UniProtKB/TrEMBL annotation, chain A:
It comes from the Eukaryota. This is Kinetochore protein SPC25. One of its GO terms (biological process) is chromosome segregation. Residues 213-257 are annotated as: Disordered. Residues 226-237 have a biased composition (Basic residues). It comes from Glycine max (Soybean). Residues 238-248 have a biased composition (Low complexity). InterPro entries: Spc25. Residues 39-101 form a coiled coil. One of its GO terms (cellular component) is Ndc80 complex. Keywords: Coiled coil.
UniProtKB/TrEMBL annotation, chain B:
This is Uncharacterized protein. InterPro entries: SPC24-like. It comes from Glycine max (Soybean). One of its GO terms (biological process) is regulation of chromosome segregation. It comes from the Eukaryota. Gene3D superfamilies: Ncd80 complex, Spc24 subunit.
Amino acid sequence: MESPISIRDTEIPLQMQNIIDASTASYIKSLHSLRATAQETARFQLDEVKAKLRETEDDFVKALAVKTRKEAKRMALMDVVASAKARVEDLSASIRDHRTKKQEYAAFISLALAASKGKLNESIERKDETQVISWYNRVLGFQVKGGRGVKFTFKNININNPDEEYFLLFHETDTYSWNLVVTTDEHEESAFNSASAPVLSMSSVRRDFLGKENEHQAEPTEGNKQFKKQNVHRRLKSSVLSPGSASSVCQSPRLKV
Amino acid sequence: MVLSMYASVTNIVPNLDEHSKISGYIVEKDKDAVEKFEYDTSKMTALDICNGIWKIISE
């Protein structure tokens, strides 16, 4: 009969081998299962991370676009501000120039006005009255004489004969006459020519004179007279338009006034 | 009195200091303004000067 120890020795390794085999198989099985799980998990996580990255990239691109737009806007604003500043400086300079010129002009006007007024007073005070009246007579061909009324005489009206005189009489009785005095023997022809040819200058002179009528109403005469402007106009018009009338007026005894 | 009549009718105050030229001032009382005029007798006839001054007066 075999010893029990020998049987145990043979049995024990067999059992151990079985155990080892079982363990190994179980381990290998577990290992396979674990690898599969790990791979699955890794794949899933990788997909998640990729999606995350894509999202992040999109956000980054958007943020970059926003930044770029803001930068562009900032640049544009800076340009506008710079332009506005330049404009303000230009306007300030312009205002300074205008203010300077205004002051210069004001000073100049003050000086000119003061000088003119000074000259006026000087001119009036210094010169003899006769000398001044002579100036009016010579330069303007204009003469004023007082008497029974006022007589205004004008020359330099007929370009063909500047020495011809035209006069206007204002009598103390408010009547008047517009008359022609000739210095040549051919007075009728001269009357005709002067009545028609220099009509414009005659009208101009009379208009000038009549426009000043109010000026001398205040002048002291033999009693204050109210000149009748309407009558003066009517009378003058008929005198201008009718050479015959002028010719007949030449025969008037009033020439002896 | 006569001198003031001349000045009043014409609104002109002559400048008698210059003999080679005819010059003076036209006074516009309502505007409180003074305008100077000057004519060179060597360049214009007496008739033209006379008409020029009257034209200024009437403006």
